[in-house]
Write the structure tokens for this entry.
Amino acid sequence: MVIHLIRTRQPTWCAAFVFFLLSLAPGCSQPHQPDRTPASAPKAIRAETATAPPAVADPVLSLKITPRFADVAQESGIDFLPDYDVQPDRFFLPEVMGSGAAWIDIDGDGWLDLFLANGSSLDPSADPQKTTGCRLWQNLQGERFKEVTDASHAGISLYGQGCAVGDYDADGFADLYIGGYGGDRLLHNQGDGTFVDVTDVAGVSDPGWTSSSLWIDVDGDHDLDLYAVHYLNVTLANHKVCDYRGRPGYCGPGHYDGVQDRVYLSQDDGTFVESAEPLGFRTPNGKGLAIAAADFDDDLIPEIYVANDMTANFLFKRRPAHGPNAPLYTEEAVASGCAVSGSGLNEASMGISLADFDGDGRCDIYLTHYYHTKNTLYKNLGGLIFDDISNWSRVTAISHESLGFGTIPLDYDRDGAPDLFVSNGHVLGPHQQPNAMTPQLLRNASGMFADVSASAGSYFKRLLLGRCAASGDYDNDGDLDLGITHLNTPFSLLRNETEIDSRPYIGLHLISRDRSHPVGGRVVVRTNRRSHLIPVTGGGSYLAGSDARLLFGWPEDESLESIEIHWPSGRVDRHSNLNSRHYWIVFEGDRAPVMMLESGATQSD
């Protein structure tokens, strides 16, 4: 038996690592996994059939447009290597989880600036003089970046993790929340290019381990609340070193207790009250790493999805009506079929991408997972029911040799189908192999995916320990660029240089009546040939704050006919005279959209 190949000091990493060990057994192959779905489970939670996925043509030979991405971080003025305070052979888990990034327009000039979280000392008593800080770069109209960390007062010191961007006080300037190990920070944007740390006044910090976060109107009162995902109870006092095949490494989530997430309700005065459990967000077994929100059941009310590491994922739905003693939210992931894999197994969920991947008008869920298991694609069947179609979509085959973290839905070739970027890298430590991994770009062809990384540029040939991936069209040229953090390697800025100028696009910056990003809404783009759904989502990826603007492209033989915006309020606005190849600021209601010019200025339609 394979188990005899291992001598452990502690229990193994997780169920996923068992699959890894099985795959390494000499002369052995993966055994058939029986259907472990409970008889009482809904139909959506079922093992996939053994039918092989449909054959597809060679992804490189069938490419009409070759993807091309170039790492321009250094030449653009961004030189950043995070300090994770890694100590040799300590194997303290926070060291290996990475740090976050956020695209944020700090001054309202129409150009996305870049904030990068940083680590700090994990044991201040050992090095009390050591200080590191987060960093901020101002975008100089898409050509270069200028560091403004000191001038902006954004260089706060914490062991930074996920970043969330949101204008919580609706003053027109985006604010920034940074989760961390050992404490969090809320930076209020003053509107003059500077920030003030208002964490204590606002009441939004916790001494535990916050991974990813999300600004969202939780209670429907038209102001932004904050959901802070918590990972594990790991301290220097209780941390462990695991033995994998006679070599030390980081112990995983199976060795530590989960921690209750935090949900901070806005009091509409700049302060917040923690209200997770009374609202129904009871997560004692959650070990969360990522969070995203979207309307999955067509009621214009966003559900909140939390990706957990080797425990069942969460899907929280707001009740349309509830009694005085009933919580506002119920947890629906098991009943909906998106808590575990199609075979009924917990998975090591780390990153989330939300998009309508198969073009059926519903928002689907893509998750990154552990090495030698699979990433997962949940197809939205409607009625808040999902089906694990990872095998049929070829996601299983493509992801088996990788361990994914950050993931981004992006239509790199403007064919109207969202493709995927995945940042990969192992977590057991340098004594284990494989460790560093190549990132992936996956092309979407009618809901099935092909790995086209080999054609996408030199970055995709590098062995890296990838973590956060944040998307943003920083040069306003109508395609998404990517910011990626790594362990042991400087930050990468992937400029999208794919030759797609012949294909039109339109960008939308949606502003609701309450001046917030309308998460839970949807946009229907109609061309002369078809209709496309663009869900208005929040959060996503891993530790990331991505560009909130919507971006949609289509083939050159199609023409744009109309854009229909379904706001969370229930209002529907239709526009048929918006010029393509521009970004538009679109306000809920009768106010005319405003076109953003290439300079970043605006012009009314």
Summary: The chain has a mean pLDDT of 89.
